[in-house]
């Protein structure tokens, strides 16, 4: 019985350890630091597309090619890889788009991962270009104005608190798909957002990236550290 009891404990431990993390996570590395981003399960098309490109190594060597302080940092343009200094970037793609996945619970708070897009009526996302929100803090009066002039809907009270206390870019809500959130290393976004840029908002010194998926062990550690148990 003693050996059976030990065996059952061992099997139980192995089963728990082998369980999949609730979410998938990516790490973005640059020469200015790194961050870890949770990909939302509630935006599966964007999540799966980003995971696919990451596994292919698609993003490695590309640049954060558009940077606007107090707004966002944008990357994922394949044309940015080895682009000559001063070249205007932002038109590269992978030949397909991803259908919009707007969710009322996902908004452009600081650290939000969103999908860039062109001015198409369906608001379909670029297959590869993305941005991370830095944003700024807003007052109630400013949010009231954005509701009337830009959004044409009321910002929920709990989202307002985020925009007032942590900041973000509320005018993008329900216009661009949010599909992830920086959960560690938001300092990277703040660092990149203030680098000197040219007239096209391209950093004067290239900021190259590498993106990789977190392995199961590290993902489980992150979920335990930040209490990420929901499958949202």
3D structure, described in words:
This protein is of the alpha+beta class. It has a single domain (21-135, 168-226), classed as Cyclophilin-like (Cyclophilin). The protein is 30% helix and 20% strand. The chain has six helices and ten strands. The protein has helices at residues 2-18, 44-55, 140-151, 157-165, 186-193, 216-226, and strands spanning 24-30, 33-39, 64-68, 72-75, 97-98, 112-115, 125-126, 130-133, 178-184, 210-213. An eight-stranded antiparallel beta sheet has the order 3-4-8-6-9-2-1-10. The chain has a two-stranded antiparallel ribbon with strand order 5-7. The longest helix is centred in the N-terminal third of the chain and has 17 residues, at 2-18. It is globular, with a radius of gyration of 20 Å. The chain starts with a helix and ends in a 6-residue tail after the last helix. The model is unreliable at 4-17 (pLDDT under 50).
Key features of this structure:
Cyclophilin, two-stranded antiparallel sheet, about 30% helix, about 230 residues, 8-stranded antiparallel beta sheet, single chain, alpha+beta
Q: What is the number of helical segments per DSSP (H or I, 4+ residues)?
A: 6
Helix content: 25-40%
Element order, helices and strands?
Answer: HEEHEEEEEEHHEHEH
Question: Residue-averaged pLDDT, rounded?
Answer: 93
Counted up, domains total 1
Reading side by side through the largest sheet, how are the strands ordered? 3-4-8-6-9-2-1-10
The N- and C-terminal alpha carbons lie at a distance of 42 Å
């Amino acid at each position: 019985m003693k050996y059976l009891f030990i065996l059952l404990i061992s099997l139980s431990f192995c089963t728990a350890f082998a369980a999949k993390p609730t979410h998938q996570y990516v790490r973005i590395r640059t020469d200015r630091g790194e961050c870890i981003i949770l990909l939302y399960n509630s935006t599966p098309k964007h999540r799966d597309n980003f995971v696919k490109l990451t596994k292919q190594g698609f993003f490695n060597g590309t640049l954060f090619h558009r940077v606007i302080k107090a707004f966002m940092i944008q990357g994922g343009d394949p044309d940015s890889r080895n682009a000559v200094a001063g070249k205007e970037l932002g038109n590269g793609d992978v030949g397909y788009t991803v259908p919009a996945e707007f969710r009322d619970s996902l908004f452009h708070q600081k650290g939000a991962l969103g999908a860039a897009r062109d001015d198409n009526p369906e608001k379909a996302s670029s297959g590869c270009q993305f941005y991370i929100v830095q944003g700024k803090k807003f007052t109630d009066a400013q949010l009231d104005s954005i509701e009337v002039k830009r959004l044409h809907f009321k910002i929920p009270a709990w989202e307002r608190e985020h925009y007032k206390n942590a900041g973000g870019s509320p005018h993008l809500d329900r216009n661009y798909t949010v599909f992830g959130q920086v959960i560690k290393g938001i300092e990277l976004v703040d660092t990149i957002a203030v680098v000197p840029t040219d007239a096209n908002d391209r950093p004067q010194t290239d900021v190259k990236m590498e993106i990789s998926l977190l392995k199961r062990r590290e993902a489980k550690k992150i979920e335990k550290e930040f209490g990420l148990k929901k499958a949202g």
